[in-house]
Amino acid sequence: MTLQLIISSPLISGSGNHLPSNLAQHMTNHISQGLHFYCTNNEAERTVIFDSGLPYTSVAWYKVIDLALSQNEIISKWKLCIYDRAGYGHSDPISWTKDRSSKALANHLHQALLDLGLTRNLYLVGWSFGGYVVQSYACEFGGVEGMILIDSTIPHQSQKLKGFNQALVDGKMAFIVAHWLTPLAIPWLSQVLGVWPDEAGSGAGYFKWELAQVIGGPYFSSSALGELSWFRKSEDDSYKCLESERFRRWNVMLLTASEGKDVEEYELQRKIMGGWNRTRHIEVKTDHYVPLRQPE
Fold first, then answer.
1. pTM of the model
2. 81 CB contacts (<8 Å, ≥6 apart)?
3. Are 86 and 223 in contact (CB under 8 A)?
4. Which of 10, 105, 211, 259 sits CB 3.0–4.6 Å from 203 for a disulfide?
């Protein structure tokens, strides 16, 4: 597993969120600071926090957790926690007009983890926009031992990737419309029917149905709109984080999905993450939806 790779690496020396039965017997429910968590192994000393991309809930990690528990003797003994940011899944809603930058989201997560007593021996896993959140967490707070960034958003995307800014605008417009249509379940139906825009988290082909199960909660469109509205601040915060001395001390792994990705985007991820001795860059031969497509 990917998690096993980073742990055993020489770099490391010292939704409707109703759980399926195969996970329910291992995970307990926690509510902290309005955020909804499911965690395994409450007495474990090491903790892995999984943060999803937008506009997805923690359901995106179900396959990953299932494989970790059933196929990895080391990781299965750790505390594995999936959670939903405010407004997703069963977590409390928050106005899209409030600060939804990655730094603000990381602070909310930190307050929740403080209440849960989880502030040491942390490993952070962030997929897509969740990568911004875990980067900000690691730069702002202590206790982080390592990170895995799964096809994560990174600095300079808006400046260096063609079409990125337009995709950002299109995504905002989709979530504005979705915000008003959510009571009619139209955003969910449009995802299933294949008319939900790519810029707002659409999949491809038959995969749209599976992806529709990962979008959840009555407030997800407002939450995603807020996160996109604060995207540039998150991007700036990520740049400052990756340039900091603290970042150079962490054990970091970046997984880049190679399918459906422009060469310039692939090279940008490789270049930004390749400048430090304590980082590893791994190509994953799938599309952006790595936790769902290749959970192993």
1. 0.83
2. 37, 38, 39, 40, 47, 48, 49, 50, 118
3. yes
4. 211
**Cα four-point dihedral sign 62, 90, 108, 175:** positive
Burial state string for 16-38 with b = 16 or more CB within 10 A and e = fewer than 16:
ebebeeebeebbeebebbebbbb
Kindly report, residue by residue over 140-194, the tens digit of the pLDDT. 898 898 888 888 877 666 666 676 777 777 777 777 776 666 555 555 555 544 5
Place of tokens 């930190």: 110
Give the distance from CA 261 to its chain's centroid.
18
C-alpha to C-alpha distance for 29 and 17, rounded to whole angstroms: 10
Residue linked to tokens 């009571």: 183
Q: How far apart are CA 256 and CA 97, in angstroms?
A: 32
